[in-house]
Amino acid sequence: MELTAKRIEVTEVGPRDGFQNVKTFIPTQDKVEIIKGLIESGIKSLELTSFVSPKAIPQLADSTAVCQSILEQYGGRIKASALVPNLKGAQAAWDAGIREVACVVSVTPEHNKANINRTHDESLAEIAKMVEGLPGMKVRVDLATALACPFTGWVLPDAVAALAKKVTALGINKLVLADTIGVATPDRVHALAVRMQRDFPDVSFSLHLHDTRGMGLANTLAGVMAGITTFETSVGGLGGCPFAPGAAGNTATEDMVSMFNEMGIETGVDMEKLLQVVGVVGNKVDAPLSSHMAKAKIYDCFQRAR
Amino acid sequence: MELTAKRIEVTEVGPRDGFQNVKTFIPTQDKVEIIKGLIESGIKSLELTSFVSPKAIPQLADSTAVCQSILEQYGGRIKASALVPNLKGAQAAWDAGIREVACVVSVTPEHNKANINRTHDESLAEIAKMVEGLPGMKVRVDLATALACPFTGWVLPDAVAALAKKVTALGINKLVLADTIGVATPDRVHALAVRMQRDFPDVSFSLHLHDTRGMGLANTLAGVMAGITTFETSVGGLGGCPFAPGAAGNTATEDMVSMFNEMGIETGVDMEKLLQVVGVVGNKVDAPLSSHMAKAKIYDCFQRAR
């Protein structure tokens, strides 16, 4: 098994994708404690929150406070980003110290409409507004349903490339390929990643792979084999998708870090410290953790044997 | 992603490895119903039970009745096997109509001692007795802790090859490489599979991969890339390891079948029928199911979209 990658980077999205899917509001100080723990474990890239109407997502109504608290201590030492739906949200993120925002567009128009009630043209227009309105802000675009759509089935790389062409024409050079409902297979992930990197050599790609069917790490492996080295993960496997009932969340940060650390592919993350944070998440967040490492007591057991 | 395999075979071990790890005795008729369901879903190879002292494993005290019931209806159309600890068990299996038995030896002497209280020499002597005592019986050997041991840490391919050399010298040509505690990584699985097939070209190998750390399907993918086409799985992900506290069970049959079916690699298994059996297992077996497909309602949802 030839893997040229010596190092991969996880982008922790639990504080946004995870926390917004928890029904109860997690107190700001708990959010901050968890995020700081993640940073102290060695995670350098984090999607801290979302700047969106508190009426739409009350769980993240404290986005400004969370960002200020984290950036005050770690600003300049981490890559902090936030999800925003529009220029207004991006402006609020900027005011809170954020210099990279993520904006979601689904590859399938059907999912884009259901998810954010926009056509592709409307989404592209909003991205253009952000790029023009906030020249200092880096705008990353998350391509949702890049592998499969709950409304239309499998999504072909041609469709992803066609949308990516329009997005990159706006000046975007950072794209996330998301298996939003977690049904993609390793061969599809590999083919898409190879194709996109070939078609867009100046774009940096990351993968966002849900673990719905247990293929999260198999798909991650396929991504690494295709040359991808950055992956979005969520502590505890928190997160989900309203259009994928019963779906497990994102591939858990601790599951992915465990795999790469044990393979000798550097993540920069200390597993002991990360598992302590997972414990805090388990205590403070009112949601079941879908991660394997959170459940398995094998870690301690096997560590002692070595 | 170059995968030359067009077809893989799952060997269902839930009726042995799974049922023996359930605390309560599953009534014989429920066992038989589940096994028949698995066969009707398309599974052709099954480890039906274990012929072992009912004092040691009361859960499988009905091994003869289970085998007779299944073989009466499906004998000749399936590859039925049973786990046995010794010649006496193999004889009982033979009397129940079984023509292939599996015998476990751990690669690490420490685990062999803890698991079955034998030295390697004692295990090899017992295998020799079976081969000589029952010439018509095919004897398969499961090499436990072939990748990692809860007592000694990582296990190197050299150690696996050294034990396999002694085992094959007894006339055995079917070996299972087991990641007993489920901590192996894809690179290690790949390296071991490549090495063993090269060193033992006349032996057929299968993999038995636990999903403790969520790498079950990633390791399966690595196995397929190394040329392995048979995998032991357990319906519902039932099973476990007494030496791996908190460990999830085997990689679930339905998770693996889902991945391969969606990749266009033939398993011969009908997913709809298999998920019905998973439902029966969920109702009749008093144990949590660790499989992803058992939890995710995404299957129906995504099927409708296609």
UniProtKB/TrEMBL annotation, chains A, B:
GO BP term, example: ketone body biosynthetic process
SUPFAM superfamilies hit by this protein: Aldolase
Domain Pyruvate carboxyltransferase, residue spans: 8-275
Ribosomal protein recorded as keyword: no
Gene3D superfamilies according to UniProt: Aldolase class I
Keyword Transferase: no
Keywords per UniProt: Lyase, Metal-binding
The organism's place on the tree of life at top rank: Bacteria
Record-linked InterPro entries: Aldolase_TIM, HMGL, PYR_CT
GO molecular-function terms, A-Z: hydroxymethylglutaryl-CoA lyase activity; metal ion binding
UniProt cross-references to PANTHER family, sorted A to Z: HYDROXYMETHYLGLUTARYL-COA LYASE
Recorded family membership: Belongs to the HMG-CoA lyase family.
The protein, known as: Hydroxymethylglutaryl-CoA lyase
Organism: Anaerosporomusa subterranea
Source lineage: Bacteria, Bacillati, Bacillota, Negativicutes, Acetonemataceae
